[in-house]
Amino acid sequence: MELVQGLYNYWIAMILMMAGFYVVISRGNLIKKIVGLNIFQTSVFLLYISMGAVEGGTAPILEEGLTRFSNPLPHVLILTAIVVGVATTALGLALIVRINEAYGTVEEEEIHAQDEPA
Amino acid sequence: MITENLPILLVVIPLLAAPLCVLLRQPTLVWGFATLVSWMVFAISIQLLILVLQDGTISYAIGDWAPPWGIEYRIDPASAFMQLVVAGIGAVSMVFAAKSVPHEIPERRIYLFYTMYLLCLTGLLGIVVTGDAFNLFVFLEISSLSSYVLISLGHDRRALTAAFQYLIMGTLGATFILIGVGLLYMVTGTLNIADLSGRLPEPAPRTSLVAFAFLTVGTSLKLALFPLHLWLPNAYTFAPSMVTAFLAATATKVSVYILLRFFFTVFGVDVAFFDLPVGDILLPLAIVAVFAASTVAIFQENVKRLLAYSSVAQIGYMILGISFATVNGLTAGIVHIFNHALIKGGLFMALGSVFLRLGTTQIDAMAGLGRQMPLTMAAFVAGGLSLVGIPLTSGFISKWYLVTGALEKGWWLVAILVVLGSLLAVIYVWRVIEAAYFRPAPAGAAQVKEAPLAMLAATWVLIGANLYFGIDSTLTVGTASRAAEVLLGLEI
């Protein structure tokens, strides 16, 4: 019980991670692949934020009566990772637009089929 | 003043130069500017190597925030050697780009091309000099994102799908590394690489073992270790010639460096190779990589793709050296990073010249080319011999240390397999030489000229360095063995 209750946000992070990973591998639609990649990356954000949490801790602000703070460093790190994630998604979608212009489809199998004879 | 700040200048100069390229816009002007920046960076990197070899490891605190709280740039012999490789290849590639890029990239996109190139250079150099694990992830993403763009600028539409596939695999790899870094932070409360190594509890708890697994798989994806190499052949085949030459010589090598850092500096050789069976996993994978990829290379019709598969095989040799976890093995791995950068950079540049004149790199179209482009094809032959590992070429030096390392461990079979792997390289290199020199040009084919001077010069600088370091290997082997000793913790 402790394993589930005490660590439930880690479980959720792992389930999301595997779900996202599965979408990336199993879907042939390029947009869906990017969606899967996003879920995968978001799960890592959850993982980082969870590790910064301190029981009963508040936001790290210096004020009278506040003595227990959550660790702000993982939050700051994950802000950077979110920016990286946004850049990756933007670039991925831009590539999909170009692929769609060149092939007229965003389905992986149809793209491969078009390249076969060449 | 300047000498003190060299570590940060190495990264900041190309980073600031990148947006300036967007402002300049005019293609020739941007090329001149980017070339100037690349050569400045190269000069800095030489200076840094000299400083490190003289006075030992350099530590630079960014913004004067003392490590381990602030971000530290840390240059030890291993990183000094790597940053020299990256900066050197970058500088030579820019000379090659003078004629190659205007031919392959539409004029209105050239300034963006060089912007991306400078960002990629920033990222690769940053990975090598940083001493902070999270900073390493950020630089990894800077270099990866810009290399996806560079690959997608290839003239064939398949460059787009190749870049997309690389984006998916690369992001998975980088995110795995991010997870690993996060778990390490959970265990130790620090992100500084040098600090991490001292704070990891012994024996390793489950969290740090999971971190180790994520870091290993993530880095292996980025360095295209067999069987995680699937993105590489397409990416190299369809990228513009200059990009292939630059990335083949630097990107995967820098990932090998990341692997070395995590294995040896963070976890230490005892945890990685004695508590965990990493050597037993890497060794067979490396050998399979050499044989499988070389065999596939033999059957390729496109020379660019042939060399891409050969790259997967050569990465196998590097990992093989690392899996020995001895001074000679690691020296072989690190020296091969350097030598292979020269070999593949030179070979892909020679192919870039062929593409410029013929418009294709199919093996059949290259028939009789030895007479029409004698200097380019001679460079290809010299590079090919080095790839095989003929004595008096730098490839021989790497193979020599690899075989010595294997024999020292008493692994006869591994030593024999290394030599057999080289024989496979003879076959695929010979296929190209046979077409270029012993077959007549196809009937009705247009007469082509020798490649332009800038491209020839860049190709021959790399091939010449290749021959030079095959004869006098004191600099390369000397630095690599010092780096190996530092990584193994034999010298502080």
Helix content of chain A: over 70%
The run of helices and strands of chain B is: HHEEHHHHHHHHHHHHHHHHH
Could you list the spans of chain B in which at least 5 consecutive residues all have pLDDT below 50?
none
Radius of gyration of chain A: 20 Å
**What count of helical segments of chain B does DSSP give?**
19
Say how many strands of chain B there are.
2
Q: How many whole angstroms does the radius of gyration of chain B measure?
A: 21 Å
Q: Give the chain pair forming the largest contact, with residue counts.
A: A-B, 29 and 24 residues
- Note the total helix count of chain A: 5
Residue-averaged pLDDT of chain B? 90
Summing up helix and strand content along with how strands pair, one would put the structural category of chain B as mainly alpha
Largest sheet of chain A: none
Topology of chain A as a string of helices (H) and strands (E): HHHHH
Largest sheet of chain B, in brief, is: 2 strands, antiparallel
Percent of residues in beta strands of chain B: under 5%
Percent of residues of chain A in beta strands?
under 5%
What is the subunit arrangement here?
A: heterodimer
Q: Tell the overall outline of chain B.
A: globular
What does this structure look like?
The complex is a heterodimer of chains A (118) and B (492). Chain A is mainly α and 118 residues long. Chain A has a single domain (2-54, 68-115), classed as Helix Hairpins, CATH 1.10.287.3510. In chain A, 73% of the residues lie in helices and 0% in strands. Chain A has five helices and no strands. Chain A has helices at 2-5, 8-26, 30-52, 72-103, 108-115. With 492 residues, chain B is mainly α. Chain B has a domain at 289-492. In chain B, 78% of the residues lie in helices and 2% in strands. Chain B has helices at 6-24, 27-55, 77-104, 110-129, 133-152, 158-188, 193-199, 206-223, 231-238, 241-275, 278-298, 303-324, 327-358, 369-372, 374-388, 394-408, 412-438, 453-471, 474-487, and strands at residues 58-61, 72-75. In chain B, strands 1-2 form a two-stranded antiparallel sheet. Chain B is globular. At the A-B interface, helix 3 and helix 4 of A face helix 5 and helix 6 of B.
